[in-house]
């Protein structure tokens, strides 16, 4: 499914390759392994992002994805490694996938339990240190495409 905001974000990233530093996509094998480990299914625009870009930076903004298929010996911006780490250390719920760290105690996550009309996970905030029963899950973007477009647009301002 084509998402206009995501396609525009991709175009912006490709046109500004001097500030874009991505892993150039990841393999289907790595994606399947990640889905199995997390018990989540990637599709739509986030799947396209993983296949096209993998993970990386646009200017100073890190966008988490898949670097390689060794999710135990990895680091940021590996979304799978970071999500598994946060599940252990911060009790991150299993329906969330971390895609961005604001560096001020707030993580932006794909919420696989909360999808939009196109069945894309919405992007919500998760506040570190807040008990699960007190988490608000503030809506950040209607889907990954909107989130990515907002992030790259802000970086260019």
From TrEMBL:
Alphabetized InterPro entries for the sequence: Knr4/Smi1-like_dom (IPR018958), Knr4/Smi1-like_sf (IPR037883)
Knr4/Smi1-like domain ranges (all copies): 25-150
Protein name (record): SMI1/KNR4 family protein
Biological source species: Alkalicoccobacillus porphyridii
The organism's taxonomic lineage, starting at the top: Bacteria, Bacillati, Bacillota, Bacilli, Bacillales
């Amino acid at each position: 499914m084509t998402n206009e905001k995501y396609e525009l974000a991709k175009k912006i990233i490709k046109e500004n390759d001097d500030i874009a530093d991505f892993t150039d996509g990841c393999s289907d094998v790595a994606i399947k392994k990640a889905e199995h480990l997390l018990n989540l299914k990637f599709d739509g625009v986030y799947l396209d992002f993983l296949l096209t870009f993998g993970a990386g930076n646009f200017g100073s903004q890190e966008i988490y994805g898949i670097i390689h298929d060794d999710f135990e010996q990895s680091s940021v911006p590996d979304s799978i490694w970071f999500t598994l780490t946060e599940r252990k250390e911060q009790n991150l719920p299993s329906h969330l996938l971390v895609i961005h760290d604001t560096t001020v105690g707030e993580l932006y996550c794909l919420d696989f339990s909360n999808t939009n009309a196109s069945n894309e996970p919405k992007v919500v905030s998760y506040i570190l240190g807040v008990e699960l029963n007190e988490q608000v899950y503030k809506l950040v973007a209607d889907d990954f495409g909107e989130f990515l477009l907002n992030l790259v647009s802000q970086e260019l301002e």
